[in-house]
Structures
1.
Amino acid sequence: MSARILDGRATARQIKAEVAARVVELKKRGVDPGLGTLLVGNDPGSEIYVAAKHRDCAEVGIESVRIDLPADATQRQVEDAVDALNADSRVSGYIVQLPLPAGLDPVAALARIDPSKDADGLHPMNLGTLVLDAQGDMHTPEPCTPAGIIELLKRYDIELEGAAVCIIGAGATVGRPLAMMMTRRGVDASVALLHSKSKNIPNRARKADIIVAAAGSAHLVKPDWVKPGAIVVDVGITRVTDPVTGKSRQIGDVDPAVAEVASWLAPNPGGIGPMTRAMLLRNVVRCAEAPAGV
């Protein structure tokens, strides 16, 4: 058996077409949605990702505003840039690109974002709403990567209700919010959230109908961790440099041989990365629609 592919690139193109249609409707009402990004430092992965987000905006008709700060920027400079994006009328929603350089406080930066402009869905108020409002449609921005994972599974008609889901990695941007979103009414999965101190991870993963690997550990999930016919979503990223060319490339958390055991596989790259960016665009449009009464 070879796993069928959960194609994040193709699905993201569908979502972007839907977003573009909503942008047209907003512009008819005199509303121009705009994305802002704040990038601090020169992390190669972050630079690539931010540039891709701005290209996505151009494709769907969303304006974009970019603020770049050097790696030695102070916390005060970062917070001043956040304040500027809060006040910028061109920006419907924006992100502070993570990770920030060492010595900067990402929690303080995220907490300073205007919650109504929180395009990544990571403001403490919006995450709190995710915890408390556990049913129905979300009316605040959803964390982009977890939303992209669920959207990809749904668009391939993967049954989530009652499914045993094993999330490996309890980070604030993927694992923890995904666990909350997977257990909302209307999704209704049963979730095991594992982390570096969890015991018997391979055995616990082997019981899952769906495995989401989001630990950031290259090829962590081995074929014998996967129940035959399970669905595997590869989210974690490790960047490696080719010693000959000097070029950087990304490796996922899932061993390629897992494709011979799983029934469906969201690969990395080509799976959740494009979905995350598509969900960011959708959040920006939602941020523009809310004050317009759409």
2.
Amino acid sequence: MTQRKQIIAGNWKMNGTLSETANLINGLKQKIKSDTLRRNVILCPPFTSLILARELTKGTPFKLGAQNVHFEGKGAFTGEVSAEMLKETGCEYVIIGHSERRAYFHEDDALINKKVKKALGTELQVIMCVGETLEQREKGITNDVVRTQTDGSLHNVSEKELEKIIIAYEPVWAIGTGKTATPDQANEVHEYIRSLISDSYSPAAAERLIIQYGGSVKADNAGELLSMSHIDGALVGGSSLKADDFAGIVLA
């Protein structure tokens, strides 16, 4: 069996002035030491903080990620940021298809697929999000939703390219609500995603795939979630904004 190293990513969302970014990263540097770190850690601050974050994380175990990317390299797309721009800031990762982008900005699987392909072509690694709403879970169609999102977002992505993709399962009903899927509920969907990848690509690709859980992950529930067989890390929202809380998850 492949030993997958767990990855914890902190999605700061629209939070963090430059001074707040400096305070948070400096706090994390005090609490998370590379010589004791068993998991990879990615910080995803707002666009405006990326260059400062790059400087503050030099010589640390932290990797840098962005929260979104456009599917074109340049052009008349007011307010957008390209993959090439992200690379120059020092980003190695980018979150694509977060449920908030799907809900508030009406991003569908076809658009997310274009972003995924662009990021991969620019040598960015992708954290690709999938997950169902509460209404969809109550209707019993979680697997249908997850399959549609996974297949659509990975359209024409090769098995070699898949090695640069992390899938984050984020039940929408558990994001920022304080509700969390039980470890068994989360693990069941993670196992299903792995089976989809096995069928679409190969059992070896499925075994290599890192699948994170996202949805009200906190220091007090991270240990149990991260102990599950198919959960390979966490995509953390609110708890990534306080050094004590995020360090507690990373070190759980």
3.
Amino acid sequence: MTQARAMSLAGPPDRSLVPGEFLLTAEDFRTIAQAMHTDAGIHMPESKATLVYSRLARRLRALGLESFRAYCELIRSNEGADERQRMLAALTTNVTRFYREPHHFQHLKTKVLPGLLAKAARGESVRIWSAGCSNGQEAFTVALVILSMMPDAAARDVRILASDIDPNMIEEGRAGIYDETALTDVNPDLRRRFFDTAKIHGREGWSVNSDMRKLVSFRELNLFAKWPMKRKFDIIFCRNVAIYFDQEHQANLWSRFASTLMPNGHLYIGHSERLAGSAGALFVNDGITTWRLSGENKV
């Protein structure tokens, strides 16, 4: 294919992919998409141009920039490292709620936690990871399930790591304050026992109590960077995160999770996600989008 023919298929180089205040060319979009893929393994097709424009236009205004080309020059520069992180946070979708995909928490309560909490009662450790935790509602749901079964769990060696690439979500999780609608699916008795009333944006809300806070620790973490955790986990939740990665990055992530789980440890993934790559042979299905690491495999 000739260069002229290729350019005709891509459209005029100065045509904006999205009509609006700022020019966003196909070249600008490719620069942003490549940065997202390099930094976080996120696959971003051109069909996401409108989302990119809407999320980043506010950053251009805040920085006083006149075009996405100027913004791309910034994130490519050494001086733009902080802005590149802000871009990543802005383009990362954070959809969560308490008890999202409730079958996972029913499985956790009936099939997984009884044995693990029996270990905790004997003084042994239990470690759970909420990877891609958003603002903490998933991790605190796990804590609710644990506390409903073992009210003194906060005094035991039971800990939940909640990690996310977005520092804004980590700060929200650490604050642990949610509006009324977020707790719609939380049992009223559990709400009364493990939440305190609080104000959020001037409205009535709920704050997780001290027992919940003792169980959950928040940490900013890129899933494709080096993981600082040394101990293995009994359970990993990573739901509706891998759908944003290409197949190679998904397969790499599943393999890394396999190496980070205890034998017979459980991995919970999103309803649209499937295990792929060599890690698929290491897990056995244990429920709806629920997988158990085979104790016979050496990872």
